[in-house]
Amino acid sequence: MSRARVLIIEDEAHIVDVLTWYFQREGWEVLSAHDGITGLELARQQAPDLIILDLMLPGLDGMEVCRRLRQESRTPILMLTARDAEMDKITGLEIGADDYVTKPFSSREVVARVKALLRRASYSEPSRDEPLVFPGLVIDRAGKEVSVNGRPVRLTPTEFQVLLLLASHPGCAFSRDEIIQHVTGVEYIDTRTVDVHIRHLRAKLGDDPSRPRYLHTVWGTGYKFEALT
Ligand code: CA
User: Fold this and answer.
1) 85 CA distance to ligand 1 centroid (A)?
2) Residue 125 pLDDT greater than 60, yes or no
3) Higher pLDDT, 8 or 194
4) d(CA 11, ligand 1 centre) in Å
5) Domains in the chain, please, with CATH?
6) Which of 4, 45, 112, 117 could be 76's S-S partner, Cβ–Cβ 3.0 to 4.6 Å?
């Protein structure tokens, strides 16, 4: 297994320093961000194994960062909350944080909680072979088969990869470049080919381009998957 990677989103430099020291000593790779926007970007780009998220952040606060992260990934999130802020803890857990630690905390406790979270996450992570099931749509990752309303749909390998990428991250917008790069491994091809794949996919999934049920255009960005009922 490669080195575990933690992302610390916290504006107080000394807390980042201390946690970084502890995690590095455990053999972890540590990424850090000092505000919510940068944290969100790093989380998307670097796909850390776990995120430590402070509630009080400049710009985008921890609650909003947590909410946005949860729309696009299941990466475990440990929240750092101020002492006695009972409401924050409850709200944090409600919007999808997995655990919290109250400041001031011992770094050892944070490391222990993080390890426990990762153990839980690795047990509950759905197997790569499990199908992705949405209303009216099933994507069988192992068999590379897709069915719409119970009827099998024939996709090209590229179309399948595009659909799988988007459907694996519901609600998360991908640029045409990201889609191309992910699917082909090539840095730059004419990104309009993505539009062609999406057009074909929509036709095969029965998606009306003007009111799609699954593959949505994100203006100025690219595309996202969201299954509307
Ligand atoms: Ca803070």
Assistant:
1) 14
2) no
3) 8
4) 5
5) 5-122 (3.40.50.2300), 126-225 (1.10.10.10)
6) 117
